[in-house]
What does this fold into?
Amino acid sequence: MKRIIEALEMKLKTRAPADAVQSEDTFRIVLLGKTGVGKSASGNTILGKEVFRELSSFRSVTSVCQKESAEVRRRRVTVIDTPDCLIPNVPNEEIRKEIVKCITMAAPGPHVFLLVLTVGRFTQEEKEAVKMIQDLFGEESRRYTMVLFTRGDDLRKMSIEDYIKDSDHSLQNIISQCGNRYHVFNNRNPADQTQVTDLLEKIDSMVAVNGGSCYTNEMFQQVEKALQQDQERILKERKEEIEREKEELRAKYEVELEKLKKTMEKERQSLENERRQKEKEFQEREAQIKEETNKELKKEMSKRLKEQQEAFTEEMKKKVQTYKEQLQKDLHYQKENYEREKEKIRKHAEEKARRQAEEEFCAKLEIAVAKAREEGRKEDRKRAEKRAGKRTGRGQERGQGRGQRRGQERGQKRGQRRGQERGQKRGQGRGQERGQGRGQSRGQERGQSRGQRRGQGRGQSRG
It folds into this structure.
């Protein structure tokens, strides 16, 4: 499934040979277009029954791909109606999912992509529609693309050819890119099946020009291979059920055959009784003729009897031949009917297995898309956490750097203050010690000089 989604992202560009797929039991049509152009109504017109829901407003009714089938002009026709999410240029997961669903339903490939446009309304998206189809389904898809105009009644007395001729260059360019293939529908008159017959004839001509096969590419073939494998598996699982249905049909056929044999036996007995009754009458007539004495009359009676006997014999031969032919015809009809019913059982089983395979494939797709979404969310969360972690690491580094710088600055300031304080204390202590020492020495010197002066003064006065 992951490989399929990855292949879709590569735009499904690989083209397969025209004879790569030979399964032409069903005529497959894919409807593409914007909301409100009449895709669902066109699907109903093609199939001749109301199977696709439609509204008159421009609100989308088809939100997912829808597949419906019917017998149309003695052929099996399948129509896949798509949501308008197939038209935008930038696909997302939901669009990819619906593309794969469309491919699943149309596998091994569609015979035609019908680009549905409405008369009188032409949007910018529709101007680029052919390129979008190529981007979604591959470059060669435009060779299998045809424009289908709806609301043909709005043309009134104008022909579709004149409408295209009088339209702007953008519409003419789309028609040209589609190989000048176009058709017009009046969905308000679905009873007019000639418009459907004409459309199918145009599609047949287009397919014949393209080599007589449906469109396919690598992606369609991958999906078809997966579906066939699942279909075979489902058929094996339902083998007992299918065999039981066949056995019931065989028993029913034998009962019908026995009834037919009894009916034909009654018819044979009736013919036999009629023959015996006539022979008895002829014998009685012969006895009467023998008793007749008139030779001429006897001869005439014998002649008439012989003619009657011959006529009856011829009549009985014809009746017996008719009886045998009717018996063979009835037996052949019974056998053909039995084979048809048996083929119906086979086809019904295959169609049922195919639908189941498609449903299982789409369910796997839903799971794969959900898983891809979850993985995407996980990856987004991891990236977010990684970015947040880097930011946190950078913040921590910045914080550590700032802390270190602040610590260094604070340490330097504290060291400076402590150094200054210590220096001041040391300076004060040394100053005090020096002051005290100087004071003491000066005091001693002063005391000595004073003592000497006093002693000299006293000595002189005594002398």
